[in-house]
């Protein structure tokens, strides 16, 4: 295991120590629990937005807490859900009288804990709405979208909902826009290597050299096909052949593209991938608006990438183009 | 080779295609040569700053071209210098009547080509100054600093010089500040895995499992010691034991810290590393100002990281805190 760490059981907490030390003016924790992270910037009367999930996916989840994005985040151990009590505590902290939106990915443990926290928050008279993002077309067929896993495309829901809340829209509107963004995104990825769980000291699944797992999830959930490793262009074409008909995305549409590195794949390769995505979309008459290339949702040392497409309309474009600032993600007004 | 690419010989040009497609409003190329990249934003009368070097280090070098940073960049093949003619062409393009600064790392091929370009530019009556950055304390002992390789610490010279030029300082001042920033930075890294050269299909050096190469360069230049892989804290302590006495950095100093991932190392681990750096500096009475944690100078799929420290004074702090905006690096005014 060629990793930089101390005791594996301290992996998450030492990572968190580093984050608070590196970004002392932007984020802080509450209740002496480092896994309950909130933004240092608050705005009275603004809808609070909370996300959460397992560790091991930086900048997901806590990297999106900050101005113009989210207000708080709870994280669990590597690939483990945070607890409902942690979520409740962060809910109380970020509620500024306008209610709180829970916005997270479609995983059983997270749903259970966010649901429980919502019930408890409502007993304390805090209005809570939930949007559960599921954008991975490889995880369940069209027609059963509600079974799809949330992967990197959740970035778009964060961005749109965060800008909506920052614009002081009411909870029902922030919820509607988060759901709309989520409904307008499709993603799919490919894994070239497994990732190492620090406490195990090894991967909990394997990918042979010279092979790839098309559609694999960010926790190593099996994809739709194990195949020999193809060229970047062939892989992009195959992924787009699943994504494009699913929404569908058609001639005349305008999209934002996110090419997301899973952790160990160099930026050079992400741009090689982006090039092909852009060329295929151009051939199909689909135009590009403000693309993103980099690491947005990772699996530690997993090699591979995912492609997400957000289908835009003027409303989504407006919120996508607004500025935001977190320790991990900065955007100027477009 | 678990990499995402098409024909290895197209690696650099397809990567460049992706960059121009993803960031069409921020960067462009000249002379139909994609390896000659310039900023789309120009400012009459501003000193132009150019960097360059081999490919395979994103966001180095071309990722630092943009507002408040650099004006142009020439890149060669993977780990290869650009040509003097390419540098000359970019020099002519970014010269706005105030002269041009060449700011790049201390590697033989780059020095030869930038030197030749400088001579040719001067024959065309363009004033050119050069600052060659060498921050890697592992590459040559104290007393022969001019033999040191330039690694991630060059980011600080880019940032300071870029802000100085953006402030419309004259060439001699931009040169002085670039040199001052470079003189105030020390870096050292550790490699945990080699990197794969796409055209070779394999690494051109090796690191055994369970071992590390302390002080290895970003092209795989041998470091100061091959050792068994230690804990993150032990590695940080050893690196700082080389960096701190070298400048030296002492009690009462204020520094900016850059923890740079070499490509395949997860952000989680970079924060574990940052935590230890911050704690050691605090123990020594050295205070922190605006730290950076992420990928700033990589070697494709190499695992490992480097630590850079910039010793600040009020002048450097002023330019470090100014805003800048490139496709790869965005900073708001601090």
From TrEMBL, chains A, B:
Q: Which GO terms describe its molecular function?
A: ATP binding; glycerone kinase activity; phosphoenolpyruvate-glycerone phosphotransferase activity
Report the residue ranges that make up the DhaK domain in this protein: 7-329
Tell me the domain of life.
Answer: Bacteria
Q: What class of enzyme is it?
A: transferase
Q: Name one GO biological process term.
A: glycerol catabolic process
**Signal peptide coordinates:** none
PROSITE patterns (UniProt xref): DHAK
Q: Which UniProt keywords apply?
A: ATP-binding, Kinase, Nucleotide-binding, Transferase
EC number(s) per UniProt? 2.7.1.121
Q: Which GO terms describe its cellular component?
A: cytosol
Gene3D superfamilies linked to this entry: Dihydroxyacetone kinase, domain 1, Dihydroxyacetone kinase, domain 2
- Protein name (Swiss-Prot/TrEMBL): Dihydroxyacetone kinase subunit DhaK
Which source organism? Answer: Caproicibacter fermentans
Ranked from the top, the taxonomy reads: Bacteria, Bacillati, Bacillota, Clostridia, Eubacteriales
């Amino acid at each position: 295991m060629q990793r930089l760490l101390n005791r594996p059981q301290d992996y998450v907490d030492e990572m968190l120590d580093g984050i608070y030390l590196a970004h002392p003016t932007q984020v802080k924790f509450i209740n002496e629990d480092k896994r309950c992270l909130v933004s240092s910037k608050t705005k009275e009367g603004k809808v609070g937005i909370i996300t959460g999930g397992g560790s091991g996916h930086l900048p997901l989840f806590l990297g999106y807490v900050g101005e113009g994005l989210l207000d708080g985040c709870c994280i669990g151990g590597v690939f483990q859900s945070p607890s409902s009590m942690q979520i409740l505590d962060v809910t109380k902290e970020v509620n500024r009288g306008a209610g709180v939106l829970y916005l997270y990915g479609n995983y059983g443990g997270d749903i259970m804990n966010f649901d429980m926290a919502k019930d408890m928050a409502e007993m304390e008279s805090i209005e809570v709405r939930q949007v559960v993002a599921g954008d991975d077309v490889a995880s369940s067929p069209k027609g059963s979208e509600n079974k799809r896993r949330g992967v990197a495309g959740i970035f778009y829901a964060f961005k749109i909902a965060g800008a909506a809340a920052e614009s002081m829209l009411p909870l029902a509107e922030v919820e509607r826009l988060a759901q709309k963004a989520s409904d307008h995104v499709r993603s799919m990825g490919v894994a070239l290597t497994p990732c190492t769980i620090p406490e195990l000291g090894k991967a909990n699944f394997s990918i042979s050299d010279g092979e790839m797992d098309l559609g694999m999830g960010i926790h190593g959930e099996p994809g739709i096909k194990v195949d020999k490793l193809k060229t970047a262009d062939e892989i992009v074409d195959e992924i787009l052949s699943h994504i494009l008909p699913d929404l569908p995305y058609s001639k005349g549409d305008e999209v934002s593209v996110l090419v997301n590195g899973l952790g160990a794949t160099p930026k050079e390769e992400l741009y090689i991938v982006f090039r092909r995505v852009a060329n295929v979309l151009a051939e199909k008459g689909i135009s590009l608006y403000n693309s993103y290339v980099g690491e947005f949702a990772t699996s530690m040392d997993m090699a591979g990438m995912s492609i997400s497409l957000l289908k835009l309309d003027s409303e989504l474009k407006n919120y996508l183009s607004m500025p935001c600032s977190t320790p991990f993600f900065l955007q100027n007004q477009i």
